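Hey,
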Amino acid sequence: MNAWNQPFYDALERKDIGAFLDQLIVFGVIASILLCLNVAQSWFNQMIKPKLRVWLVGDRSTADNRRKPASRARLWVHSLD
């Protein structure tokens, strides 16, 4: 990203429309790649959370019971004590 800054600002300083448009395309490619990486990271985090919860609890049935509304209410009431 830093290597891209200098040519971009040089094109602006020279008022070179062709070079500016080329650098704008480079920016679009960089932004697209970063967006894809961000979406992939978010997807990975969402996929790994349930697996980590099951691993932490150690029993799938216990993890499933915590998802039920009544269980959450009981946990909330006990946390107030």
